[in-house]
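Incident log, support desk, overnight shift.

02:14 A customer reports that sequence design results differ from what the structure should imply. Their input is reproduced verbatim below. On-call engineer (initials T.W.) acknowledged and began investigating.
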């Protein structure tokens, strides 16, 4: 009798297992990353954007990619169109690119979209009682070891450190650097007047510094100490200091202001430390990881392990804090970031000025991505 029951139940057990592995048997989980090709008619609201506005970002792409396979022909064709209108730009993309869906981990189709911008700080080329917080150039003691040269399977993997006797050890963390300024003595590029501004500049990656005479110097990301990035907003969330829905650049700044006795310890929860270089053209956009200027609301940071730098991306999200205001536009993957990890993770560059600061500081919307791959 038991053998008869088992024979009857075995197919049911098998069906249940299959259903559990395939999301109840109706849909299999898509593999994370760039997925299937789709038709242009399946790209939601593709025709609503002003595609010509993306042209400066595309031309910046060609500064870095014009000699790359596939891009060489695309860039040559783009240069033949000096000042396209929206229809010409749209037709260009449809002619030279193919849309593909982008799938997230564990079958996700939507992920967090954040924003960044180019802040304006007050600073000086010499330290003083007011200007006492240095921005550093990459120190000579910072070592960068390319593991791919030793182990081909680790191609693209780099570690940073410093020499201590006859050993290579991790480079100094944020807390070590901030507690002992002598560690980087002589590497100061410029001094600013606000500790929190200096910290958040490292998060943004690039900015502008206004000197006492009114002139402005651009500063841009040059290197990093090799320690992982830790979000202090997430730290405040786990400690129940702030609620998830209220976390933004502005609420974190306010918390630091209201809790001066705890501020240094919180900032040091992020051991990552960024080193800068001076940028000659402060009027142009900051230089992204593609080594081209970024374009406000047309450049994004992505995970280059999933989406190649330079790839056009159709971004579908909402305006910051406005779930009833869709924000859908063509952007180009021209930057990367320590916190931008995963197939659907994207950080939108908003530019500079009060509007950019507000938008970037409040941007934490869910979004979907479709990538446009060169034919």
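02:41 Re-run completed on a clean worker. Output:
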């Amino acid at each position: 009798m038991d053998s008869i029951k088992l024979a009857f139940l075995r197919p049911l057990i098998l069906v249940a297992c299959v259903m559990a592995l395939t999301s109840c048997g109706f849909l299999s989980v898509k593999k994370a990353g760039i997925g299937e090709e789709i038709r242009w008619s399946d790209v939601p609201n593709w025709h609503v954007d002003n595609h010509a506005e993306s042209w400066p970002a595309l031309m910046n792409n060609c500064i870095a990619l014009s000699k790359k396979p596939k891009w060489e022909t695309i860039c040559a064709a783009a240069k033949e169109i000096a000042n396209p209108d929206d229809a010409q730009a749209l037709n260009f993309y449809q002619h030279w690119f193919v849309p593909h869906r982008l799938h997230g981990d564990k079958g996700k189709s939507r992920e967090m979209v954040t924003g960044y911008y180019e802040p304006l700080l007050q600073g000086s080329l010499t330290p003083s009682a007011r200007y006492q917080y240095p921005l550093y150039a990459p120190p000579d003691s910072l070592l960068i070891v390319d593991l791919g040269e030793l182990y081909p399977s680790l191609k693209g993997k780099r570690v940073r450190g410093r020499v201590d006797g006859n050993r290579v050890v991790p480079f100094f963390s944020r807390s070590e650097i901030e507690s002992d300024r002598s560690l980087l003595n002589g590497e100061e590029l410029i001094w600013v007047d606000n500790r929190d501004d200096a910290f958040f500049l490292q998060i943004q990656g690039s900015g502008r510094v206004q000197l006492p005479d009114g002139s402005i110097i651009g500063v841009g990301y040059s290197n990093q100490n090799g320690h992982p990035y830790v979000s202090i907003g997430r730290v405040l969330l786990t400690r129940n200091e702030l609620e998830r829905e209220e976390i933004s650049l502005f609420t974190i700044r306010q918390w630091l202001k209201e809790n001066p006795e705890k501020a240094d310890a919180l900032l040091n929860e992020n051991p990552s430390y960024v080193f800068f270089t001076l940028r000659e053209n402060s009027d142009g956009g900051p230089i992204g990881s593609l080594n081209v200027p970024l374009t406000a609301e047309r450049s994004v940071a992505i995970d280059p392990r999933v989406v190649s730098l330079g790839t056009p991306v159709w971004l579908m999200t909402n305006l910051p804090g406005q779930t009833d205001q869709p924000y859908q536009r063509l952007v180009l993957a021209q930057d990367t970031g320590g916190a931008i990890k995963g197939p659907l993770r994207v950080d939108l560059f908003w530019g500079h000025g009060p509007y950019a600061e507000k938008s970037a500081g409040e941007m934490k919307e869910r979004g979907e991505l479709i990538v446009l791959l060169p034919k």
